[in-house]
Structures are given as structure tokens and as C-alpha cells.
Amino acid sequence: MGRWAPDSRGRLARIAFALFAEKGFDETTSAEIAEAAGLTERTFFRHFADKRDVLFYAVPLAAGRLAERIAEAPAEVAPIEAVTEAIAAMCGDFQEEPELARQRHRVIASSPALQERELAKHEELARAIAAALVARGVDPTPARACGAVGIAAFRVAFPAWCAQRRVKGADLPETFRQTMAAFRAAVAEAR
Amino acid sequence: MGRWAPDSRGRLARIAFALFAEKGFDETTSAEIAEAAGLTERTFFRHFADKRDVLFYAVPLAAGRLAERIAEAPAEVAPIEAVTEAIAAMCGDFQEEPELARQRHRVIASSPALQERELAKHEELARAIAAALVARGVDPTPARACGAVGIAAFRVAFPAWCAQRRVKGADLPETFRQTMAAFRAAVAEAR
User: Fold this and answer.
1) Is B191 on the interface with A (CB under 8 A)?
2) Are B141 and A190 inside 8 Å of each other by CB?
3) What pTM value is reported for the model?
């Protein structure tokens, strides 16, 4: 199953992303999104607080899935490895609908205010990862380290993947794993 | 020299932080800050865009100093070590006026909106660090790794230091170095 569940919210989000990418975020109204989906604006507001919420509504779902995947990792797996695999799996989710992921990225990249909000949402993911590790018995500071490094590597890998032209040839989980390996090597470097 | 230069802006910031901490950020007006400083509100607005700007005006100064310190590190120093020492030196700057640093922290911790802005400012510091490393010939991805890890460790160490009661006994550079060592160990952990 992809990140974007095939429910009403997912369907509205798909339509919204396409409109944002086509017309621009500021130029698209919630009424237009609802109309394009064949719904009333009132129905739109039953699913989303506002049009900005459309861009970020799936973050708690992603955070929950990261936490589940970390909880499910075998006990002998090192925290940083559990985090790497959980984020790589999230990358696999995104990759199931690459155009959707790229549309969303382009919209956010077009606005400093949206970028700031995305940064805050990524911090939520990092904290969800840390909390899931603490629930596995990891101390808080190394847990925060693993969450912060994993999400920072994702923040490098994801735009790099989005910028690649040939969607089919570019593998997001692999791009992420390579970035993570480079991050770990840079941080581990001996004195 | 501390982070808070003894100029008009620094003096206004000191007075503002004390008022924010005493009365609350929302309850303090720019007019009150100006009055407490013996200045007109117009003068206040010559130095700051608004009262929120007072909390963050020194971030570009801190970013510039981090970049300078990284540029000055001997060529044989590993990037992650150069970053550790540059941030530890920034911690030393903050520690010169511990009550000021703590007042500012309390104000920001009281407001999710200010926390989000602080997060964005910390991202600016991480990117300034990465840019300074790239200028030393480090590849962009490991440069981003060092910036992200250094600032993430600072974001753990600084609140921990602020929470410590005995100001004189708590050493911020040392707290940061220990956090950084724990971060590096967590990320380096062998497969």
C-alpha cells in the first residue's frame, strides 16, 4: 500500500497536488479543488482545515508507519540500522506514486513559508523515530541522534531524487541508503 | 567578546529578553521595550522589524562566526571535528551571559510558533556550516551531514544545559561535546 490511501482524503490530495503544480499554490482555492473532485467546498473542509493542510495531512501517517517499522525490527538490529530501513521503506512508499511525490515537492520548494512548515513536519518525523527507539530501550540521546541523522539524510536524498529526470531509473530507497552511508561515514570520521 | 555585542541592538535585546521572561512574550509590546531602554518606539523599529525579530536577530552573527571558525581550522582537522569545535566555541559565547541565553530559551519554549521559527534558524546555522565546509573542499553531502549532526546535537545539549539549576557548575561547551560524542557513537554503530 502506498502512502496515499485510496480514500476521499487521498483522492482530494491527489487532485489538489495536480492543481497546485499546474496553477501554483497561491492561485488555487479550496473551492477549485473541491469542484475538480466533484465535491462541495463544505466536504473539502470536512477533510482538511485549509489548503495548506492538504500538503501535510499525511505526515502523521508517515510518522506512525516509521514508528511501527522500528518497533518491528528484530531486537539484534542496531538503532541506526533500524532507522535506515524504516526510512528506506518510507521512501519506497513515496516511490509508488513518484509524480505525486514530485508535485508535492515542487509546490513546497516554491514557497519559503511552506519550506519552513515542511521542516517542522520533518522534525516531527525525527522525534517520532526517537520515541520509537526509546520504546525499544534506546537511551534518549542516541535515539535523538538516529532520528535527526536519518531525517537529515532524507532531506538531502529526497530533493536529489526529485531533481532526477528519468523517474523510472531513479530509485529513492537506494538514493536514501547511499546518502545515509555518506552521512555515517562523515560523522564517524576518526580524529 | 560574547554573542551579544554591547551596541544598541544588543542593549535593546537584553532589555527585551528580561521583559519577555517576566511578563510573557505576547504581553510585552515593542513600546514597552523601547520605554524600558529609554528610547522611542521609532528607534526600536530602526533596530528590529518587530519584537519577534529581537529573539532571532543574532542568528546571522552566529552563522557568520561559525563559518569563520570552520574556515580557520587547520587543514588536517577532519570536517566533523572542525564543526564540533566551532559549535563548542559558539556554546562558549552563549555561556558568557548564561541568564540571557536561558531567558531567550524560556521565551521560545513557551510558544510553538517561536519554536518553529527557532528550528528554521537552526537550519540556517546547519546550512552555513555546510557551506563553510564546502568552501574548504568538502563534498556537499558529507558537509550537510556534519552541519546537520552538529546542530542536532546542539539542539539536545542546549535545552539540557538550560534546564540545569546551578548555572555556574554547568558547562555548555562540555555538555555539547559530550552530546556530540554520543551522537557520533550512535550513528557510527557497526552493523
Assistant:
1) yes
2) no
3) 0.91
Which tens digits make up the pLDDT trace of A99-151? 888 889 999 999 999 999 999 999 999 999 999 999 999 999 999 999 999 99
Q: Among A55, A71, A92, give the residue marking a domain's end.
A: A55
Output the domain CATH number for residue A42.
1.10.10.60
Residue in B142, B146, B186 nearest the CB of A145: B186
Nearest CA in chain A to B115: A120
- Where in the sequence is the domain holding A151, given as residue range(s)? 58-188
Q: How far is CA A74 from CA A81, A85, A91, B152, B182, in A?
A: 11, 12, 20, 27, 23
- At A27 the three-state DSSP class reads coil
Asked if B86 and B66 count as a contact pair (C-beta separation under 8 A), the reply is yes
A144 touches chain B (CB under 8 A): yes
Q: Do B152 and A153 touch (CB under 8 A)?
A: no
Residue that is written with C-alpha cell 541523522 in the block:
A149
Residues of A in contact with B187 (CB under 8 A): 80, 145-146, 149, 183-184, 187-188
Give how many domains chain A has, as a whole number: 2
Which cell numbers in the block locate residue A36?
475538480
pLDDT value at position A2?
44
A4, pLDDT greater than 60: no
Q: Does A79 touch chain B (CB under 8 A)?
A: yes
Question: Does residue B76 sit at the A interface (CB-CB below 8 Å)?
Answer: no
- Fill in the DSSP letter of residue A5: -
- A73-82 pLDDT, tens digit each: 999 999 999 9
Q: Which three cell numbers stand for residue B103?
A: 531567558
Look at residues B58, B85, B59, B90 and name the one whose alpha carbon lies nearest to residue B72: B85
